[in-house]
Amino acid sequence: MINFTNTSLGDIIVHKLGNKAEDEGVNYSNNILNLQGGIIEDILLKFFVSPFKSENLYRFFHDNDLNLNEVFYYVSEIFENKENLLMQSRNLAKHLYEQSNHPKIRSGEFYVVILKDCMIEDEIFDAVGLFKTEKKDTFLKVKEQDSNYNIDYHEGININKLDKGCLIFNTEKDNGYLVSLVDNINKSKEAQYWKDDFMKIQPRKDDYYHTNNYLDMCKTFVEKGVENIEKDEQAELKNETMKYFAEKDSFSSEEFEQEVIEKPEMVEAFRNYKDTYEEEKEVELSEDFEIVGDAVKKAKAKFKSVIKLDKNFHIYIHGKKEFIKKGYDQEMNKNFYQLYFDEEK
Question: What would the pLDDT profile of 243-299 be if each residue is shown by its tens digit?
Fold first, then answer.
């Protein structure tokens, strides 16, 4: 969905944000960098865009007026006129600093970047990138002097580990733009300031959103929402769920309940669990939507049907529940599974 093959780097400005809990303030830069051409552009492009692999998209929101969302407004001014970059980058830096109230939030560099010719949903748009680097890695340096080698070190930013970032694409402005997000530092509550307090974004409720959320709900239903279900039945339900999503182009909740859930008493439990899931997770589960293959591929690893037996055996089940039977051996005083197969590979 997002492609950076023909993307190039525009102007960049970097500010330094201190730790707000220590009242360190913001060091603003007056220098706009233009680093197009050469190895530095290639390095920075990789650093800025390579982490954006998720198809989850967001949009800015505000309860009263979208223009009262600070990041939305400041970025809109940049899209309106690139000459506004310096002033609005300062506004963005100040706004981020003011939201960095938790003592565990680290100081770091804040980048505002123009990215040209980004492809999203098969169309080309410019984007504004907002990035923050907080962690520093230690790198070894080997120096040659008079045919001898010395080892030194320095601290720097690992270009393979972007801490926090977002890309705001210049499209769908009236709906809060299209926004892609990265936050690799940590998922704890104090780190959510980047998405919730600074940016104030929420998921865009598209087909990817609905496919991803419905699959996650189905997985947790099978694992936690069904009482007195055997592991082999869990495995079959997971397999049938993935088979449905892999083979169908569109989703229908009525059809899914008939073909996958089947049992009337389980259908009722499924509907009740879905209502609970929507309320607790604060998500919307649509009754009908187009299935997005990338969301199905992403979920596939989580749907592995594995029965773990003590610390000795794992049974991976890919289908045909009738070929596995559970029993109890009185003489051994242990449970057992019988597996039926045609050939050993």
Answer: 899 999 999 999 999 999 988 888 999 999 999 999 998 888 999 999 998 889 888
Say if residue 214's pLDDT is above 80.
yes
Strand partners, 308: 314
Strand ranges inside 48-191, DSSP E = 58-60, 108-120, 123-133, 137-145, 148-156, 164-169, 178-183
Q: Which of these ranges, 158-172, 199-213, 228-242, has the smallest mean pLDDT?
A: 228-242
Across the range 50-54, mean pLDDT stands at 85
| Six token digits for residue 225 | 């929402």
pLDDT at 190 over 60: no
Candidates 176, 183, 202; CA nearest to 68 is 176
Domain boundaries, the chain: 2-134+162-204, 208-339
Count of alpha carbons within 13 Å of 98, Cβ hemisphere only? 10
**Which phi and psi angles does 53 have, rounded to 5°?**
-110, -20
Q: Which residue has the tokens 């923050």?
A: 132
Interhelix angle 293-300/231-247, rounded to 10 degrees, is 160
Residue with tokens 């290639």: 42
CA distances from 334 to 64, 307, 321, 326 (A): 63, 16, 21, 11
